[in-house]
Amino acid sequence: MIQYPDYLRVAEEAIEQSANGKGAKRHGHNLPLDQQPMITNARIFGIGAALAQVVKKCKEAMLLEDYDHIQHELLGAIPYLTTAILVHRETRPREFEDMTCVDCEKSLDSSTEGYLTTTGWLCPSCYTKSLKESA
Question: Which sign, positive or negative, has the C-alpha torsion 74, 42, 100, 122?
Fold first, then answer.
């Protein structure tokens, strides 16, 4: 069950606007999402390119007075923030792929979250356990 249904609803609205709005027609070029300029530019120039667009959209929203236009600009910022997150996830250091948890020896690959501590890498469950033990 989703604990934040309003967040999910807003995310769905942002996806709908991004996938079917004027931006998709102008910039999407009927390409898969991972090949569209919003993503490829962030890969080339870093996530700051996407985050700059988030700031631009938010500034534009603050200057508007019409409710619908404000809503449109704010929803338009969400795909850029999502782009920054997705591209950031792609940039996980290569050496991480061969790491294992120092406590349980679970393999940590690029799809597994890991936490680097002073004793080495920890998987999420061992990290959580270590936090509880240190509290």
Answer: negative
Alpha helices in the chain (DSSP H): 5-20, 22-23, 37-45, 47-63, 67-90, 124-134
Can you give the pTM of this predicted structure?
0.66
Q: Is 30 left (phi over 0), alpha (psi -120 to 50) or beta?
A: left
- The two tokens of residue 66 are 């019409």
- The identity of residue 84, as a single letter, is A
Q: What is the pLDDT of residues 86-106, one digit of tens each?
A: 888 877 665 555 678 889 988
Contact predicate 83/65, CB 8 Å: no
- What's the CA gap between 86 and 106, in Å, rounded? 25
